[in-house]
Amino acid sequence: MTSYWCEYAWLPGGLAASVRLEMMGERIVGVSADVEARPEDVRLAGVTLPGLANTHSHAFHRALRGRTHGDGGTFWTWRERMYAVASRLDPARYLALARAAYAEMALAGFTAVGEFHYVHHQPDGTPYADPNAMGAALIQAAAEAGIRLTLLDTIYLAGGLGPDGHLPLDVVQQRFSDDSVDAWSTRVGLMSDTPTARMGAAIHSVRAVPKDALAGVVAASVGRPLHVHLSEQPAENATALAFYGVTPTALLEGAGALGPMTTAVHATHLTDDDIASLASAGVTACFCPTTERDLADGIGPARALADAGVPLALGSDQHAVVDPFEEARGLESHERLVTLERGRFTPGQLTDALSRNGYAALGWPDGGRLAAEALADFVTVRLDSPRTAGAAPEQILYAATGADVTTVVVGGEVVVSAGQHRLGDVGRLLTDAISALDDGAAS
User: Per the database record, which ranges form the Amidohydrolase-related domain (predicted)?
Assistant: First the structure.
């Protein structure tokens, strides 16, 4: 058994002081508050939080950070640059980039990640000899980086949606597509869970998956998390209304795609009826504040969704920023901007969005909390850095950044100690991986 004594820890009932966490293998077996440290305890100064989930990730987007701002543009022009990076990926380069990206996440305090994975095949759309070579690279990358993974294998059948219907796949999108629901389902069925990775599914969007295919995706995904990009852009709503006569939410609802295992990613431009539908179906909404502002997507109705009973989770999406605390602050701060009110979410609600709600959305309902029988995943944040000095421990989310994380434990194993990742220099890993992609552009 291993035991940690925490100066402060965020338990299911809120912040507690002088907390001992006892672990056996990958599980927490005991939690005691207001206790003295024992000689055998590993002492953790600062605030220890439950494992934090990055509920929505596109690992390869990390190669775009700081490279898309020179000429302004829109989400759609940014997407063209993203496609250019996707065209240069192969299993080896993807392994290197994802391993570095996941290590950066762990270093910042994320202990689980939902990878919305759609770069499946060779650039011309031909499957690799192992049809899941790209997914296998992501699973290996997460294992080496020390982060739990839910691989949200994504179906992508069309090149977009216009007022006259779905568009054909373009050259880059060919590698995203399996051509049919049956082919996608067969390929996904070749993969299985591992101790640190679980298989999930995703509908890229109602733009990329036609209405007549949605029910088949739902049937093939029973029992697994099902995620979908939803109403990220007004253009998606406009084209769905023009062609189908309903909003994207209503389209998914009609196909049976909304349920307790469904997560709607972004959920930015929703009607009141959309919100009611998501709530009645038990859907989780995953907001990605740093991406939604970076891409000028807009500010979604977070408080309205929460008030309707929709659990909220958080993700870093395109990784313009990798910092769980900034995502949590973004959820609150964006609400402040649109309502001119402070305190839209309590620290406890923000912590739940980062931890247990995200874990549940990724199919790990036994994680994201510091309690007996839960997964032994936790993150410790220092209280004496230039950013956190003087902060009230219960308000640490409003002061800390990923740079203040000192310790990360996943499944009882130490991944980050004294602010250092077990893989070493994560900046060097990222530099090398991104440079390899740049070399690919010239080859």
Answer: 49-415
